[in-house]
Hints:
The chain has one domain (9-137): Immunoglobulin-like, CATH 2.60.40.790. It has 1 helix and 10 strands; from the N terminus they run E-E-H-E-E-E-E-E-E-E-E. The protein has one helix at 15-30; strands spanning 8-9, 12-13, 37-39, 49-54, 57-63, 72-77, 80-94, 99-113, 124-128, 131-137. A 4-stranded antiparallel sheet has the order 3-8-7-6, with no helix packed on it. Strands 4-5-10-9 form a 4-stranded antiparallel sheet, with no helix packed on it. It starts with 7 loop residues before the first strand and ends in a 17-residue tail after the last strand.
Amino acid sequence: MAGTTLTRNGGKLEPFGMMRRLSSEMDRLFGGFPVAFTDTPFEGWAPEVEAFAKDGQFVVRADLPGLSDKDVKVEVLGRRLTIRGERTQEKETKEADYYASERSYGAFARSVLLPEGANGDHATATFKQGVLEVQVPLPAAAAPAAKSVEVKSA
């Protein structure tokens, strides 16, 4: 990646810009589906996300422990699939000589760039045992048409 530089924003280096460029370069070099994950700024927790193609579907899975289907929103806008939610976690410890309570709250958003031709209008989502799975239909692979080539005498 000759010529790549870190950008500055108010005197601060932006290493995530470089990471996005590196990801794009890797996609270009290795082909396949260019999957780009993006995040909203957060402090603390962001769910683990994986994306892959299987059986004519582009599948995105997010591990969302402690959440329910009502805590999660899925949106497709153009080629961008975004998973949003808010996690509220509470932990209490009661003993004879002390009491402790910890609470953590935080909104998150993770986005995935869908492959060219993916049909976001027909996306489906299921939530089971803390795992969200979104399936987006992919276009049927076009079978190459056979072409006759004339053979001439040399």
